[in-house]
Give the backbone structure.
Amino acid sequence: MAQAWKCSGLRWSVDGPQLVWAGDRRSALTWGKRVAFGVAEGGVRTCVGARGHACPVGAAVPGRSTGARCEECARLDRAHSVAADTLGGDPRPYHVYLAWFGPGMTKVGITAEERGSARLLEQGAVCFSWLGVGPLMAARRTEELLRAALRVPDRIPYAAKRAVRAALPEAAADRAGEVAELHARAVALGGWPESLVREPLRVVDHVEVFGLAGLAVAAGEVSELVAGGAVSGELVAAAGPDLHLATGAGVVVLDTRLMTGWGLVPGGGGELTVPVRKFNEPTGMQDGLF
C-alpha cells in the first residue's frame, strides 16, 4: 500500500505557489505541471487541530468544509486570531490595504507589516494597494471607518472570486481603477487615527503571478474529496488557495483547503473522479470567511 501523506495547504513564496505536507515537505507548483493524487481507499477526513496542536479526539470532519476543523478546534483557532479582535495587545505594526478581485469586488483588510504581501496572495487578490500602516488597533479602526463611510466590505466570497477570473480586464490600468478610486476617497475621509501613517497609491498587480492572462473559463469546481477518489490535471493557474487544472472535462478549480485532513496517495491516472460542481449550481452555506 502506498504511503499516505497529509497536506497542510497551499503556501505562497517569492518563487510561487507550493503545496505543503506534514513534516514541512514542499512541492513547488509551476504552470504545466501535472497535479495528480488519490484519496486513500476507506479513508476518513479528520480534524487538523488548532494553533499547531492535534485535535485531541481526532474528530471526523465533512468533506466540503474548507476549514477541516471540528467545532471545538475551530472555536479555539478563531479565539486567538486578529479577525476575532482578541489580540489587541499585539505590538507589531499592521498594514491596512485595499484588495481587488474583479469588477465591483474590492475589500478592505489588515495584515501584519512583517508578512508583506503574503496575505494578499493567500486571498487571491488580483491587485492591491496599501492605505496605511500603524498599531493594530489603529489599523482596525481605519478598516471600520472605510466599511462604515464608504461601504467597503471586509469579505469577498471565494465563489465570487472564482467566477470572474477568466473575464478580468486585459489592461492593468483597468484592473487598478477601482482600487485607485477607493484609495482617493479613503484618504480624503476625516477621522483617521493619528497613529496610522497613510501610504500613497501603489497598485501591485498579480495577474502574471497567478497565471491569469488568457485563462480559460472553468467548467466547475471540486466540491469535495471522497475516499477512493482521484484528482488529475495540468496546472494552468493558481490564485489564493485555488488551483486551476486542465482536465479531460475542461478546466476545473480545486480549492486546496479541501485536501487537508485526508490521507493522500500518489496518483498516476488521468481521470478526475471526485465530485465537481458547475459554477451555476448552488454552492450552499458559505463555510469560510474570506
About this structure: Residues 243 and 254 are 5 Å apart (CA to CA). The radius of gyration is 20 Å.
